[in-house]
Amino acid sequence: xxxxxxxNEAIARGAWEAGCHVxxxxxxxxxTEILENVSRYKEIxxxxxxxxxxSLEVAxxxxxxxxxxxxxxxxxxLNVAADPFxxxxxxxVNGGLVIVDADDPGLFSSQNEQxxxxxxxxxxxxxxxxxxxxxxxxxxxxxxxxxxxFDTPVLLRVTTRICHSKSVVETGERKERPxxxxxxxxxxxxxxxAFAKAKHYxxxxxxxxxREFNETSPYITFEDGKGEIGVIASGIGRxxxxxxxxxxxxxxxxxxxxxxPEKAIRDFASKVKNLWIVEENDTFIEGAVxxxxxxxxxxxxxxxxxxxxxxxxxxxxxxxxxSSGPDxxxxxxxxxxxxxxxxPHRGLLFAMSKKKDLVVMGDIGCYxxxxxxxxxxxxxTICMGAGFxxxxxxxxxxxxxxxxxxxxxILGDSTFFHSGVTGLIDAVxxxxxxxxxxxxxxxxxxxxxxxxxxxxxxxxxxxxxxxDIPRLCAACGVKEEHIHVVDPYDLxxxxxxxxxxxAAEETSVIVTTRPCALIKEVLKSRASLHCVVDAEKCVLxxxxxxxxxxxxxxxxxxxxxxxxxxxGCSLCEQVCPKQAISREGxxxx
Amino acid sequence: MNKxxxxxxxxxxGGQGTILASKLLSEGLLALGYDVKxxxxxxxxxxxxxxxxxxxxxxxxxxxxxxxxxxxxxxxxEKMEALRWLPYLSPEGMLIVNNHEIYPMPVILxxxxxxxLLEVALSxxxxxxxxxEAAETAAELGNPRVMNVVLLGAxxxxxxxxxxxxxxxxxxxxxxxxxxINTIAFRKGLDLV
Lengths: 589, 193
Fold this sequence. Notes:
The complex is a heterodimer. By secondary structure, chain A is of the alpha/beta class. In chain A, helix 1 runs parallel beside helix 7 (133-150) and helix 3 (52-65) packs parallel to helix 5. The mean pLDDT of chain A is 97. Chain B has one domain (6-191): Pyruvate-ferredoxin Oxidoreductase, domain 3. Chain B has helices spanning 18-31, 79-85, 105-108, 118-125, 134-140, 147-158, 165-173, 179-191; strands at residues 6-13, 35-40, 50-58, 71-76, 89-98, 128-132. Chain B has a six-stranded mixed β-sheet with strand order 2-3-1-4-5-6, with helices on both faces. In chain B, helix 1 packs parallel to helix 6 (147-158), helix 5 crosses helix 6 and helix 6 packs across helix 8. The mean pLDDT of chain B is 93. The interface between A and B is large, with 61 and 64 residues. Strand 8 of chain A pairs antiparallel with strand 2 of chain B, so a sheet runs across the interface.
């Protein structure tokens, strides 16, 4: 059947057709929809794991037991999962093991632009890079076969443009296969130093065998353009190059980009006069080609930063100047993303914004948007969990410097389970005076509503235990009197919690209790609730505008609240000094 | 069938339904026999930020994205987003713009101003512009959310792709309980051109 699919949908389909049994992931743009789509195939056990390391370990266990297993993560997730990643390369597989890594050139939704192709080189395992959705499906199936044939995990590396672009896919059917037999084998699976050393020899030998396999693999295609220019490309760069340069150029398309097929590259280079390497971000292929002693062009003309495009390639290789469109001469104001109307993060962040001598360590999640005007709460974003751990060091440094500002850390429920809890334990044990805020909205919101250990439901839709965050904090050693549980729609309570935690001399925690405003049940129950402004009483003081709520605007000299966007959180009613705002409608539980 | 392709860029504000409109467009183009590629941006941009979707179709499409000056049609679901993405329109291209304003936070906070009489400045800068009252039309139909499908109807007509197959495409992509209103919205959009 021919269907339009995103790369992520096609990867899921490929896993299903390959007979995959177990799939695990932690959500992260642009990889999130892979597991969402896998979970629609009931033959596959699928789960949201606590973090990326856990997801790879779950998949590793399944592979060891004999199942075909996969995990998926965004590029920075592979940093978290790097520990098992490197050692699984030594252990190899029983059932096929595929790690899907989704990089984000252009940083559409990420904190850095790291190029994860180096992970394949570093961990000495094979890497496949599809260039469209059809190849996502085919390569996913091939990855399982390669994994079992060469006793190795396989990295399937994609990028945002592959994940979130749709193209036509010819689908097939699932090939059922039994979970393989498991036989106890510590020399293979228990990486004690002596066993691991023996394994390292095998890993090096495997790499040579994989290189030989790639020389004539079906994942290399050669197109003879009969011209002087030759292009080596992979992934999306391959599609951009073909679009930009057309048929008069020769191409060596590499589908398997590690280990690189040296003979095929030498042969191609000998046939063309000007050799170009087209790749996004780092000089992964170019560096390898140059180290073979082959002259080529690449990053001397193409950018290291940001995505590639056909226009950039045409400019670099053909010297074609990019076209430009009409210009009105008017500069549009910027449109930064915002916390939604009714977002439960706003109340506590607003209460924190009123305390002027705070330093706030941020983290990865919607609350990161609180660092923008008008709230301006949060001044750092490092990685998942650092919003807590960095507080410990920052607070200790403040004390060394004799500075009085108190240090707060903010992160969400999913981030807390992912890697925030370890930072909190560190804080308690090391007697940090920091304040640790968990904005618990019961869902992984930023990536689009995925279940987490606080939700009470699994990815496969089963009811399950919902972890109790205040009790978990108490179990980590935070004293009961320093755990403040607060409704962030109640500004007075939010301010009191911030004041009380601020004054404490010991580790303090604030946990908010409102679910994300976009959860379906929440949307339904609050659909008719909205706030209205009494223009007679309104003195246009703008206090409500300073909440940064997208439902509140000033139009033609009046404050207007969009009744469709508003969910009646009533923060504006609480900040209005003239009682000009009131709430209408009903809550339907 | 003539398989000469086009580049369509759909832009708007996160939450306006540009992604559903792009999905419908792509599925419809596939049903009409074209090769289609579509590229959308998810994630942080969905929180009320500026969003864009590239749709490219023809006999054979390689790259899923177009560059500045390459859009044959730019469809702006919000007026200021038309301005932001105007450099992507080809010099001979057509601008379809929804006469609808959504204030960004810098404007709400009074830090910058929403450009006045934008539709006039836009129409003076492009060779062909279609100003659509999609928000008004959707409100008259009783569901402000179908604004995206009104715009889709106008786009399909402008591309010369009006065909009975679109009702099947709507039927396969839109949930049953809102199919009727979306079908009406699509027809309204066709009639606006």
